[in-house]
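Limitations

Structures in this collection are predictions, not experimental determinations, and the ligand pose is part of the prediction. Treat each record accordingly. The example that follows, with magnesium ion as the small molecule, is included so readers can see exactly what is and is not provided: the inputs are given verbatim, and the output is the predicted complex.
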Amino acid sequence: MSMLLQTTINGIVIGSAFSLVALGLTMIWGIMHISNFAHGSFYMIGGYVIWTIITLLGVDFWLAILITAVVMAIFGAIVERLTFRPAEGPFSTPLSSLIVSIGLIMIFNNSVLAIWGARPETLGAINIQEFHFLNVTVTLQRVLIVVAAVILIALLQFFLKRTTLGMSIEATAQNAESARLMGINTSRVGSIVFAMGVSLAAIAAGLMAPLTNINIGMGDHMTTYGFVIIILGGMGSIPGAIIGGFILGLISSLSATYLTANYYEVIVFGVLILILAIKPTGLFGAK
Amino acid sequence: MENLLKLYTTKHLLFALLIVAALVFPLVASTYTLRIITMCCIWSMLAIALNLIVGYTGQGNLGLGAFFGMGAYTTGLLMVKLGLNFWLALIIALALTVILAVLIGLPTLRTKGAYFAIATLCFNIIFTTVVIQWDALTKGQTGLMNIPNVPAIPLPFGGQIDFHESLAANYYLVLIFLILTIVVIYRIVNSLTGKSFLAVRQDEDLAEAIGINTFRAKLLSFTVSAFIAGLAGGLYAVYLGFIAPAITSYGITFTAILYVVVGGAATVAGPIVGSFLLTVIGEQLTAFGTLHLIIYGVLVVLSIIYLPMGLVGAYQMFWPQIWQKMKRGKVHAA
Amino acid sequence: MLLKVDNLVKSFGGLVAIDALDLQVNKGEIFSIIGPNGAGKTTLFNVISGKYRPSSGKITFEGKDITGLKPYNIARRGIARTFQVTAVFSQFTVFENIVIGHQLHAKSGMFGAVFGTGQAHKDARESREKSEKILEFTGLTDISDKPIANTTQEERKRLSIGLALATDPKLILLDEPVSGVNMQEMDGIIDLIRKIRDAGITVCLIEHKMRVVMGISDRILAINYGKKIAEGTVKEVSSNQQVIDAYLGVKDAA
Ligand SMILES: Nc1ncnc2c1ncn2[C@@H]1O[C@H](COP(=O)(O)OP(=O)(O)OP(=O)(O)O)[C@@H](O)[C@H]1O
Ligand SMILES: [Mg+2]
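Predicted complex:
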């Protein structure tokens, strides 16, 4: 029983990170129709950036998260302007953004290797106070991850529904053509959404950083999990990404504990293929 | 018409010349170069396979690495564990690859676009996970070693082609399969079947409305593509004698996509040009040490920005115009 | 009677686009379907051609039940169609479009092509010859090698009809074949439609322009909100009060 509870809590914690990653991915897809396969690499860079800020500048964890979010947003906007944007054109295909992503993954991963080296880094002890209840142990950081993710998601919702900029993002997602006719600068919206997506991934990496170590491969799974989530939730759907993120967190945590630690990815991805075979546009997708 | 004829014959002449060059190549090349070119031939086959389903049929199959791995691992395992000779192992491996392709194609091809891409990506991850975890069979992360060579082929007038000693023999083996693959693909894409693949890519509703069973066309393309990828995998296993789980991963698919797009999607020559060019460039860049993959990545991004239709695609698009201009120039001069 | 539709219903969620519709198309006639925007005309074509499954009802073609068959099967049975938004294969030339339209008659498949069998060569030759004829018939011979990007709207309209004809249909469903072309081009396409009928192919036509419908049709079906409001000869339908109210009246007012 306590094991089930512990596993569920772990699932929710991982699910928070998944949700943030998937949110960025789904927004980038919904607005720009870009399959950003480099999303996990942005996540990884986020991890290294927060590590650098904390170890080099000795900044407080939450301030470091904030700085990382801003730095990565700017970085994302620049990368988008220099690569994905110019790759759009009359001859571009859905493969174009995949190719840009492959190039970026090579550039990012090997730059990180050149700058930080191959040795994994750790942040050391952050928020390690423990809570005990019903025979389960939860560290403060785990609680804070979930709280931070929920606050961020709420802020994002507020931003999208209540601010002018947010509403122009929503309008562009609904129909880019009519948004343009309404006078919305859709190209600027694209940049902002890309920057936000990258920033969300970096925040997720920063939040998770105290729990794991920081290494070059840490983002690989984030990309595939992210895509699995937004496929399940329906490409471009924001609620789908949030709910899908938590569901996948739970599935992966539960199946890793109860079914098979070695083959749990087989189960996670197998379930997705099965769902798509029955419902080819995802669980929450249109008919 | 005369021009067409000229074009037709120059194309064939060029192909014949290339084959002659490829045949005499081992006489002049160093061992190092020959190794690289043999790998180029294997990657070309994989890229050709990918081009059929992704380029011609428009289905973003991100699971081709699994079929490459399926060909490689089944061939390797049948040879190592059961002691089968290469030819028998390859035939069984290809049969199993085709069966797997149909089993995977049936559910995943019900989806479209990005959904299909992710479904096949998931399949590939599952495949690689199984290869890694099924230690007892595949030797897991350690990889499968000591895969025997292709058995020597006795020659009619005495002597034999020995694949153990001769790198050239292996090169010729791979080359012959590459040429066969090119001929087969050339015939497919120029047939009505190939045109129906292109039709599916352009407009599925319209294709259905003129009597094309689009699901069947996609499954056919998917399976043939998997077959060729499996063949490339089998050759890879027997040529290198060692395989590891990484060669089954979706990273392999991504590499092949790169070759196809840089060379020119939905062209016969594109995947081959892309494979050779990028492999050779990659080798040259190793001189830059740790920087080389960064430079490679920059080149990849630049190529998709400035040559979105690929080298061969750009050539096909612009060459007729240049040709016209040149001809007109001549007329004026005369 | 070539095509018979019985008590056909097609609903999208709550919206009933086709509502208990009956109709019959006779061999060799030009049968027109009229009705205001959103009346369900295109949906009717989509259901007959198998793009949508009907919610209920029965479709019979040449005496055989074809309800719920897949579009490619319907095409192979002899029903061809064009789309309201003109659809042709945009990366093919005009000629290649027609060739692919005839591929459903090929007896050889991929393996025939790979091994270069006699049947494969025969199929390729036949589809080329057939395509030449269709190009001639639709008046596209002169632009046969043009890429689609360089064609006009009228040429694409003709080509989309040619593409449907290339399947060798017994019945052709044309969805607004003269929309978006000028008067002179329109007359050309109307002549083409007559020519199709005279060649023995039954035509089922959706059209808004009354001048066209009244001039060309053997019989007319008028629908509104997915329901039949009149069916009969030009005279019968054009004098029907409900038709005048629902459709012609609206047209006059507009
Ligand atoms: N795929 C669909 N999903 C939901 N509703 C649909 C779909 N296709 C058509 N409809 C609805 O069915 C009704 C009939 O549409 P249809 O396109 O058949 O009209 P139409 O008679 O062809 O009109 P028009 O003259 O404007 O072409 C409309 O209300 C339309 O919105
Ligand atoms: Mg309509």
